[in-house]
Structure of Metallo-beta-lactamase domain-containing protein:
Amino acid sequence: MLKAAADAGIHRLVIPTPFGVGDVNCYLIEDDPLTLVDCGPSSAVALLALESELERLGHSLRDVQLLVITHQHIDHMGLAHVFASRGRAEIACLDKLAPVLENWEHHGAQDDDDALLLMRRHGVEDHVAVALRSVADIVRGWGVSCRVDRPLVPGRPLELAGRSLEVLHRPGHSPSDILLVDQEHRVAITGDHLLAGISSNAVISRPLVHKWDGRRPKTLLDYRESLRLTAELDVDVMLGGHRQPVTGHRELIAERLQEHERRAEKIFDKLAAGPRTAHELATETWGEVAVTQVFLTLSEILGHLDLLIDRGLVTEDRSADVIRFARAE
């Protein structure tokens, strides 16, 4: 399938990251303008690898004229500032994401503060939550603020000389996920929306709005709706942000949706013993992993609890400082 994409002028560039997910896939579209989709984290290792990958394809960093960011996570947008300052590329992303990228440090700090509050409210020990908030200050440095030249409006195509890319907003994994769909060549570049071999976590994140009521975003419910819409796409291959391309996306989406159902059922079973915090449920499910990956496991558990709450099977007690969940009576 990578050959089919390459025949359509879309080439994969594999860039190392310092994160557990491993390498990130960026994609060079041989067209006018020469377009790169995603760019890796802001690190010397990633930059050297990106320059090497571009050289392998006969290009340099300064040849790239357009950089498109699929979503706000730092393994996909971190090096955008290099293209804006050292290169001559225009930077494009979802229109609602533009203010975030242009003031990344502030937005990232807000997101990390939200994560600290969420950890405390859902039963994570205070010393663990505070320590992880300190680590977040370091991790945030793999992303850097960057100007945005071309805000992308969902439903309005991104036109290149030799192709038209449909821009689709698919929130869930993050609030800002977009797909770029090349209908003529039956190829979609999907970021982390749908991945082969691993499930995309519906990470809890601050919504892309100026005014927010502070209520917890229902990211898994958003993600499931986005997956259902993606299942309707008529393409042969989806080029994801990690691992290998996805073929048979409808079957994979059906599998992912069924995985959500199985996980929700297991959480519901655990609540038979009585009310639990989300962190207690995460610890019962993953053991020590729930401490080392506490925010990801909380996002996972809370997403499935939201699915159960939406169906009237579980209630959420917010009356105390720490929130607990129980089976509905």
About this structure: The first strand starts at residue 10 and ends at 15. The CA atoms of residues 283 and 289 lie 8 Å apart.
